[in-house]
Amino acid sequence: MYTRSEPAEREPDTSARPPLVRELLLVAGLFLVYKLGRQAANGHVEEAFRNAGHVWSFERAVGLPGEGAVQGVLLHSHTLVQAANTYYATVHFPATLAFLVWLYWRRPRHYVWSRRILAVLTGAALALHLLFPLAPPRMLQAAGLVDTGQVYGPTVYGETPATDSMANQFAAMPSLHFGWALAVAVGLIVATRSRWRLLWLLHPLLTLLVVVGTANHYWLDAIVVSALLSVAYAAMRLPRTPVRTHLPWQTAIPARRYASPAYARSGVRR
Questions:
Q1: 95 in Cβ contact with 188 (< 8 Å)
Q2: How far apart, in whole angstroms, are the C-alpha atoms of residue 244 and residue 239?
Q3: How far apart, in Å, are the Cα atoms of 46 and each of 58, 95, 141, 191?
Q4: Which residue intervals of the chain are DSSP H helices?
Q5: Eight-class DSSP state of 255
Q6: Can you tell me the distance from the alpha carbon of 42 to that of 24, in angstroms, rounded to the nearest whole number?
Q7: pLDDT tens-digit series, residues 161-213
Q8: Predicted confidence (pLDDT) per residue in 211-268, tens digit
Q9: Over the Cα atoms of the chain, what is R_g?
């Protein structure tokens, strides 16, 4: 009796792996463009608050739940709200970088595809940051939310958003925190064959709850970045996986069952 096992882990297709130095320079360049692009969108304070009022009113008009419902859960526990702030501050870049590194070494074809997806998504998001500056809900008085980063820590933002030289606090639309997390989850689901691979979706789900609960983003920020990501996926084909010629059942069935008819007629017995 033979039992069916999970498919063997595929060996990486090294022929599809791009040169390492080129990729390091490319990723570093994309990161620099990301930082400079966010800085270029800084300073539109009045417009950012005006847009925030429009987004808040639109969400209520279409019946989206208030962001405060998620924050209320976090505020029940000092430890929980600090954990959410830490997740927001520390997971975004390292998780995405680790994802790209793993794909580069283990799934080169999927690496190239995912890197292009992230580049297109980030470029579209930066363009929207320039066209639609938006103050996050933690700054909007009508929202009545707590700036959990400033109150409980840790935070990645300065106390005076208009003069923050480290980050653009008026680039809430769309949420690249959620967009990158969703791209990472989809990339891992596509590139792996584990029966548990759908659990990668917990990463964007947790990220969504964190960005909303800490009042750094509106629900609409996540909806818009999901739409942008969907367009990117529709425009780029999935990488093709080379077909393996090895037949797994050839080693699972005893060799004597493959004896040729001539051998059987010869009368030779084992």
A1: no
A2: 15
A3: 19, 34, 14, 44
A4: 20-40, 45-61, 68-74, 78-90, 92-106, 108-131, 148-152, 176-191, 202-213, 219-235, 261-265
A5: G
A6: 28
A7: 655 556 778 889 999 999 999 999 999 999 999 999 999 999 999 999 999 99
A8: 999 999 999 999 999 999 999 999 988 876 554 434 444 444 444 444 445 544 555 4
A9: 25
> Which long-range contacts does 91-100 make (Cβ < 8 Å, 24+ apart)?
91/207, 92/176, 92/177, 92/180, 92/181, 92/207, 95/180, 95/181, 95/184, 95/203, 96/180, 96/183, 96/184, 99/184, 99/187, 99/188, 100/27
Q: Please state, in angstroms and as integers, the Cα–Cα distance from residue 214 to each residue in 23, 56, 96, 136, following that order.
A: 34, 16, 21, 10
| Whole-angstrom distance, CA of residue 15 vs CA of residue 224 | 36
pLDDT digits (tens, 9 = 90+) for 72-129: 999 999 999 999 999 999 999 999 999 999 999 999 989 999 999 999 999 999 899 8
Inter-helix orientation angle 92-106/20-40, to 10°: 160
Residue 3 above 50 pLDDT? no
Q: Under 8 Å CB-to-CB from 121, ≥6 apart: which residues?
A: 176, 179, 180, 183, 225, 228, 229, 232
Length of the chain: 270
Least confident of 7-16, 44-53, 88-97: 7-16
| Among the listed residues 71, 97, 101, 99, the one whose alpha carbon sits nearest the alpha carbon of residue 85 | 71
